[in-house]
Amino acid sequence: MKKVKYWLRNVFGFSGKEISGFGVLTIILVLAVAAPFFANLLYSGKRAEATADIRKLDSLKALLQESTANSSDIQAAVPSPSDSFPISSFNPNDLSVDQWQTLGLQQTIAQRISNYRQKGGTFRIKSDLLKIYGFPAEIYAQLKPYLLLPDSLTYTKKEYSTTPSAKIEKRVTPEAKPEKEVLSFDLNLADSTQLVQLKGIGPGLSRRIITYRNKLGGFYTSNQLREVYGLDSVVVEEVLKHGYIKTPILQQIPINSATVQELDAHPYITPKIANIIVDFRKQHGKYTSLENLYQIRALDKGTLDKLAPYLSFD
């Protein structure tokens, strides 16, 4: 630096102050020349960021349009019960899975009906359709006039004389049969001894009712009796003549600590749903209310409403 000052003093005859002023002026000139270059760099960076933001917005817009289109396609693909309503009467024991779907049922419910029929189950009266878990009441109401089934059953009683050739048949209604006097009882406290006293219930069905009640954690509505496998509507009505539900104390599932196996043990929760509930809890933290579970798309509102009384969010 001293050599530069010495050279300026000898060549131009600058004084000390003039040399200092010349240095400042030189710095200003250098900055003025370099300023456009740095400004261009700064502007290019911001322009690149703006371009990237525009691209992101365009991508989000495209995804939103695609999601809306898919949602419309899905809604259009779901058959409406009124659109596929049967023209003529039919027997529900003869329909295939595809035919049930054309009547507006979901594929899972149609398959459930097929499984019930394959295991030997039979629809004997119209209301037997409602014992299929999840069968929509509104679709049943529309289909009821077209069902080739009676509204109720009558019983055939055979009487035989001492000679084999003489055989007489009498048709009597259930009301004509003498009924044993049965005391009313709480369905959540009833044992097999009380249940087997009812018409149409033997030891096997009584055990099945109690087993299902214990798996649920107690009944909170009499309609849950219709979910017991093999219990047709006639027997359900017989049970409800004498059984009642009085302020049930239900066994609840601690949703924030229950394992997959504990959740899967409940009749309303499938293994797939049990895994989803646990995984969602691990990712998003503890559930505070039923509203958190509504965020899980795999859980439909009907299932959640039935399951709600059995959940504890402590």
TrEMBL record:
Residue ranges of the TM segments: 21-43
InterPro entries the record matches: Endo/Exo/Phosphatase_dom_1 (IPR051675), RuvA_2-like (IPR010994)
SUPFAM superfamilies in the cross-refs: RuvA domain 2-like (SSF47781)
Keyword Transport belongs to the record: no
One family name in Pfam for this protein: HHH_3
Keyword field: Membrane, Transmembrane, Transmembrane helix
PANTHER family: ENDONUCLEASE/EXONUCLEASE/PHOSPHATASE FAMILY DOMAIN-CONTAINING PROTEIN 1 (PTHR21180), ENDONUCLEASE_EXONUCLEASE_PHOSPHATASE FAMILY DOMAIN-CONTAINING PROTEIN 1 (PTHR21180:SF32)
Protein name according to UniProt: Helix-hairpin-helix domain-containing protein
Origin species: Rhodocytophaga aerolata
